[in-house]
Specification:
Radius of gyration: 24 Å
Number of helices: 4
Shape: globular
Structural class: mainly beta
Strand content: over 45%
Number of strands: 41
Length: 674
């Protein structure tokens, strides 16, 4: 009852599009200038109204709406790359938006910043979330991808080890070395251990996310065997923009994010800073983190752009241990930073990027382990429209990574190690007809330890009818052994070879009604040469003897029940001959979103079937259902307040064996834009 009273107290009106806005006609075409019907178009006004509208193109690829210029347009359509374009004037005949054919892959896009709510319709193919509904990138991915599952031991702070590992279709590893995180086109992982550090992927400097299900090794190489999580940073629009978000809730859990950016003429800059903390729901489970980025860019010409970005973050986390074996003083301190220099180009027949990047990190753990790691890499990718129906991508990756480790408690020096990796890759997209699109790609990757490997991919999509399409793909993925597995612990084995996987999948997508979008994907993954640990401590060894066949089905459906109410549901089923720990066989996610004009309400749920915390389906964890509630309301033109309640019905459950999750907990927040 108190929650309802609080929500009613913050009900205020939102700002609609200006009634007197001029009409703008958009025409969506492909690379052959053929019209693209049923394309989803989102228009965001960049003027004083800051309004949002959306719709779909008709049979002639046309859409006419009222909008105050300038506007930013986002266009999505099955079989094409998403197009984001700024429109400042209306040429004679309207605005033409030209889409680029895309390689067929199962992706889910998440708009994190400034996600529109009031005027957004089901016609958008991207899934959108407000920043307050998730605390980290991994949280956002898990809430929107049914085949993704993240282990955690408390309200905030993944830490190191088993907690914070993520699996996609049952593949990922613990720690996560089989699923790659990509930040602004750059692979990101700890140089020695080969896994991402999830506590660094806050939402402070995240503009959008893209999740690829199935191998992405042709594009990104090692570690993208299960797929890739691509993080794209914030880039400011014209003018000066500042956004301050602050929240505080149960267990003294707080998050604070500041974003300040500006674009004037050819210049832009973007500055972000974030802070998070919690005392935790259990004794000795505190967490603190800080992170910040600074990016500066310049448009050399209308076609060439360059930018440089620096970043750094630090976190402290405590592990309270299991309830049967509680711990005190089990802490980790980790700091990471880096920089990147980017050169981007865009034209009517060719477009691409070049990245020079570096990262470094230092780790301190209570048991005496200390390490430093670093990486230095170059990535170049260029696309060419060689014919109206043919697009070719070509690129190269060069990276050197490694570091050193020591145990100060045992006075043991593990030594310093580095590996070099060189790769070249290419992809071809061929629009054979208006209904059929073919895709192929290949990567040659040469690692200084593991040697050379060739990974191909093939895909096709066929439009059965205007609102129905089917696609299929065959892809290969791989994961090179990490420096920890080769030279450090628990049993250094320099003879290890790469893990390998072939993946086969098909997707059927349908829009039977204008307000209903649904798709179903079936997949079959053959995994071999897995690196496994044999024996019991201290007599353990590593070897390439693991194998598994994973197969499953994923379904998604989005329905606009009425103008201001929508329902989203997704389900994933997994069957494996060698089920990895913390990989649920069944998972269902769902949400109901209601726009009451003066307040936006979202009620979501997550049902997880029985999982196992040990290999060979041992250490069973009970199934559970958890519901979450979110309410956001504007307070004036530039301020909104929100209330979030996790575990709404106070369910008792465990995600990580021996670590009970918090009961009902809540947080209140405010978002200031100026």
């Amino acid at each position: 009852m108190n929650l309802r009273v609080h929500l009613l107290a913050v009900l205020l009106t939102t700002c609609p599009l200006a009634a007197g806005a001029p009409e703008v006609t958009f025409r969506v075409v492909d690379s052959q200038d053929a019209v693209v019907p049923r394309a989803a178009v989102e228009i965001r006004s960049l003027g004083a109204s800051r309004g949002v509208s959306s719709g779909i193109t008709d049979a002639q690829g046309m859409l006419t709406v009222k909008a105050d210029l300038p506007v930013e347009v986002l266009v999505t359509a099955p079989g094409f790359e998403a197009l984001r374009q700024r429109v400042e004037s209306i040429p004679p005949g309207g605005v033409t938006l030209r889409l680029t054919p895309a390689a067929i892959r199962t992706t889910i896009d998440v708009v994190v910043h400034d996600a529109p709510k009031a005027e957004t319709t089901i016609e958008q193919t991207a899934l959108e979330i407000e920043r307050g509904s998730a605390r980290t990138v991994f949280d956002a991915v898990e809430r929107l991808v049914p085949s993704a599952y993240v282990t955690r031991r408390g309200i905030m702070g993944f830490g190191l080890g088993q907690s914070g590992s993520i699996t996609l279709r049952g593949i990922g590893g613990s720690p996560t070395t089989e699923l790659l995180v990509v930040v602004d086109g750059r692979p990101d992982f700890m140089g020695l251990m080969g896994h991402p550090l999830p506590d660094f992927y806050t939402l402070t400097d995240v503009g959008s996310l893209s999740v690829t299900e199935g191998p992405a090794s042709v594009l990104y190489g090692s570690n993208a065997m299960a797929g890739a999580i691509e993080i794209k940073p914030i880039r400011p629009l014209q003018g000066v923009h500042t956004d301050l978000i602050a929240s505080l809730g149960s267990y003294y859990t707080g998050q604070y994010r500041l974003t300040n950016g500006a674009r004037w003429g050819r210049w832009f800059y973007n500055l972000t800073a974030g802070l998070g903390h919690t005392n935790g729901a259990r004794l000795n489970s505190a967490f603190r983190d800080q992170d910040g980025t600074l990016a500066v860019g310049y448009d050399l010409t209308h076609r060439w752009r360059t930018s440089v970005e620096g970043r750094y973050g630090h976190f402290f986390v405590e592990d309270p241990g299991t309830v049967e074996g509680p711990l005190a003083g089990n802490w980790s301190r980790v700091g990471r930073g880096g920089f990147s220099w980017d050169l981007d180009n865009s034209g009517s027949r060719t477009w691409g990027l070049a990245r020079v990047y570096s990262s470094f990190g230092h780790n301190m753990i209570y048991d005496g382990f200390r390490s430093v790691d670093n990486s230095l890499g170059v990535r170049v990718l260029q696309s060419f429209l060689v014919a109206p129906q043919v697009t070719i991508d070509g690129g190269t990756d060069i990276i050197r990574y490694g570091g050193s480790g020591r145990d100060i408690s045992a006075n043991h020096d593990y030594g310093e190690f580095h590996l070099n990796d060189y790769a070249g890759f290419s992809r071809v997209r061929y629009a054979a007809s208006k209904s059929l699109q073919l895709n192929a790609g290949i990567r040659y990757d040469d690692n200084s330890h593991s040697g050379a490997i060739v990974v191909p991919e093939f895909a096709a999509t066929y439009r059965l009818a205007e609102n129905y399409s089917v696609s299929a793909s065959v892809t290969r993925g791989f994961r090179n052994p990490t420096l920890r597995e080769l030279y450090l612990f628990p049993a250094p084995t320099p003879t290890l070879q790469p893990e390998r996987m072939w993946n086969y999948q098909a997707t059927f997508q349908a829009r039977p009604f204008s307000k209903v979008l649904a798709w179903v994907t079936g997949y079959y993954s053959n995994i071999d040469n897995l690196i496994v640990t044999i024996g019991n401590w201290p007599n353990v060894r590593l070897q390439n003897s693991g194998a598994a066949i994973n197969k499953g089905v994923e379904t998604h459906a989005r329905c606009q029940l009425m103008r201001r109410a929508s329902f989203n549901v997704a389900y994933a089923y997994l069957h494996s001959t060698n089920l990895a720990p913390y990989s649920p066989q069944n998972r269902l996610i769902y949400s109901f979103d209601l726009d009451l004009k003066r307040v936006f309400v979202s009620l979501g749920g997550n049902t997880v079937g029985r999982t196992w915390g040990g290999a060979g389906q041992t250490l069973p964890l009970a199934a559970y259902t958890v519901a979450d509630f979110e309410c956001t309301a504007p307070v004036g033109k530039r301020t909104s307040v929100s209330v979030i309640v996790d575990n709404l019905f106070n369910r008792r459950y465990e995600v990580l064996a021996g670590y009970p999750m918090p009961g009902t907990n809540a947080a209140g927040g405010i978002d200031l834009k100026f």
